[in-house]
Structures are given as C-alpha cells and as structure tokens.
C-alpha cells in the first residue's frame, strides 16, 4: 500500500503554561494564545494525528492502525491501541508537578490500556532552566506527610538542563518541566496525569486546578532512584546514530545527518521527527523534502530508504 513515508499533521493543545514557540520555532499554526503542546505523532483519542499523503490521506493514525495493520506489522498481541505518542512541548511557564501510573494501575483504576512512561529530548532551554525530577522522601509515609504539608521545596529534586540533554522518566516518577524549556517527548500513548502541585494557579474561571494527591501517593516510586542509562553511538555512512534509551516500551535515537546514508528499516515501523535542518528522504524512487517541524512514520511496507542533507531527527520505535 504505502511505499513512502506517512506524513502526519500535528494536533495543537491549549495549556495554561504554554507560549508561542510552537509557531515561531516550528511553523505550526497555533490556534491559542497559550499553545503548550503539539501532538505530532498521535493515535490517542484526545488528539489523533491526520495523515497528509498517500491512499490514507485525511484518515487518522488510529484509523490506519486499526484497519491497515500491515503498515505496522501489527499483531493481535499488540493490542487495540497504537502504543506510542510523540509531542513537542513549549513551557513558557512551569508545568504542574505531576506523576503518571504504570500499566497495571492505569488498567485497573482508569480503564485505559497504557500507563505512562516517557522521555524528553531538550530542544531548547533558557539560561538557568531546570526540571523537577524525583523527590527526597525516604518512605511513603514521609512522602504523604510532605505532600499534605505542602513542603515542596524540601521534597522535590531540581535538575538544571541545557539544549541536547536527554531525560528518561519512568512511570511513578514525580516530575515537572520548568519555564523556558522546549522538549520533544516520546511516551506511551496515555493521557493519565496525577497533579501533585500547581503553584496555586487558577483556571480561566478563577478556580484552583484539581490536585490528585491520593492517586499520586499510591503510584509514586519510593524512594526515588535516578534512572541509569548508557548512550550508544554508531555511524552509518554520513549518519551519526545515538541510541538515547532502550527500555520496555520504546527505543529512542538521535540521528545527525551530514550527507548521504542508505538505511534498512529493521523494526516494525519507525517514528521520525525532524528537529533541525532539512533533508530529502527517498523510498522506491520517490523523493520527499523534510525539514524542521515535520513528522512522519516509515511503515513496515518500506524496507530500505535513503537520506540526503543536513538535519537532526529524533527517531523511535517499540
């Protein structure tokens, strides 16, 4: 069916902490004053991407997953839902401090197929920008006591970041993206968030935003342990490939193209987001120009493809 990449239209999401960089830096048509997220590769019902080319143009990615499993080498064991979600987030202000459940809790308590393990590639960070990643509580009783008292400064761990940093965030990790940071997030296809602290902000109607301290206390990993990982690098012709993480739910790479490279798709399918520069991708004698802000899937029906140009990409697969 498809002997070419499947290009996708991003879905823009309004967020109280969002800014305008998704427009100014990526060229997306932002419909809100505070546009915080672009769901750039998504089959989630809260923001499914539309296909922009080929026989399935104007269908959603979820439509393709359900009706054309051959594009993803989908089996019954893969379940009914597309497994991954890729976003670009513009944190003009601090995001709420939050935590996500694992698969078993999400299925049992929320009735959804996936919890949320995620990872972040920092695209841009203002001087002095930082994340919250983890906590200092030694046991669950200390965690609950600190939450109830609102002892956030002593509880939460702050981590400075700069552009090019990579952060792995397993389910159960208390976290927050700080103001002045733009990230590309690769995650399980889940939209379950338990808000722990929100800086006493109010919504558009002046009401405090809901917190979910009970659920957060139940799902948070105690004590917190910083994830350990090794970045592995290889070179394929003019392409430098850095494997950022390989875990149960996804493997994520940073590709740095400086010339030409011929590649074989060895996984069921590849998700690709262009984060810098421009290039050409050729499949079966069809050539497509790609540039910063474009997102596409190399389907299972494409075995070999070539890249030419100068560009950086974040690539992922299950």
TrEMBL record:
Catalytic activity annotation: D-mannose 6-phosphate = D-fructose 6-phosphate
Entry's EC annotation: 5.3.1.8
CDD domains: cupin_PMI_type_I_N_bac
Enzyme class (EC, first level): isomerase
Start and end residues of each Mannose-6-phosphate isomerase cupin domain: 242-317
NCBIfam families per the UniProt record, alphabetical: manA (TIGR00218)
UniProt-listed InterPro entries: Carb_Metab_Reg_Kinase/Isom, Man6P_Isoase-1, Man6P_isomerase_Firm_short, MPI_cupin_dom, PMI_typeI_cat, RmlC-like_jellyroll, RmlC_Cupin_sf
Name the record gives this protein: Mannose-6-phosphate isomerase
Protein source organism: Oceanobacillus neutriphilus
Keywords: Isomerase, Metal-binding, Zinc
Cofactor(s) the record lists: Zn(2+)
Pfam family name, one: PMI_typeI_cat
Limits of the Phosphomannose isomerase type I catalytic domain: 7-108
Family in the record: Belongs to the mannose-6-phosphate isomerase type 1 family.
């Amino acid at each position: 069916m498809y002997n070419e990449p499947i290009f996708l239209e991003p879905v823009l999401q309004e967020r109280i902490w969002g800014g305008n960089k998704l427009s100014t830096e990526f060229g997306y048509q932002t419909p809100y004053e505070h546009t915080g997220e672009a769901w750039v590769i998504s089959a989630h019902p809260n923001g499914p991407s539309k296909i922009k080319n080929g026989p399935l143009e104007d269908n959603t990615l979820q439509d393709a997953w359900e009706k054309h499993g051959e594009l993803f080498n989908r089996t019954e064991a893969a379940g009914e839902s597309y497994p991954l979600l890729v976003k670009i987030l513009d944190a003009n202000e601090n995001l709420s401090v939050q935590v996500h459940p694992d698969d078993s809790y999400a299925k049992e308590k929320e009735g959804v197929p996936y919890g949320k393990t995620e990872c972040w590639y920092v695209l841009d960070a203002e001087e002095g920008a930082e994340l919250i990643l983890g906590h200092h509580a030694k046991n669950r009783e200390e965690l609950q006591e600190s939450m109830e008292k609102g002892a956030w400064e002593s509880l939460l761990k702050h981590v400075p970041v700069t552009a090019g940093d990579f952060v792995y965030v397993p389910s159960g990790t208390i976290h927050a993206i700080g103001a002045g940071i733009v990230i590309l997030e690769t995650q399980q296809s889940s939209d379950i968030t338990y808000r722990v602290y929100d800086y006493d902000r109010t919504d558009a109607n002046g009401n405090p935003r809901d917190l979910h301290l009970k659920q957060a206390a139940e799902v948070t990993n105690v004590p917190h342990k910083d994830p350990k990982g090794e970045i592995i690098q290889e070179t394929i012709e003019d392409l430098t490939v850095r494997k950022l993480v390989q875990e149960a739910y996804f493997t994520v790479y940073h590709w740095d193209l400086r010339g030409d490279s011929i590649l074989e798709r060895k996984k069921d399918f590849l998700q690709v987001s262009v984060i810098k520069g421009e290039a050409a991708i050729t499949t079966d004698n069809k050539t497509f120009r790609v540039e910063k802000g474009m997102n596409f899937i190399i389907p299972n029906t494409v075995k070999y493809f070539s890249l030419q140009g100068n560009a950086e990409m974040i690539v992922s697969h299950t």
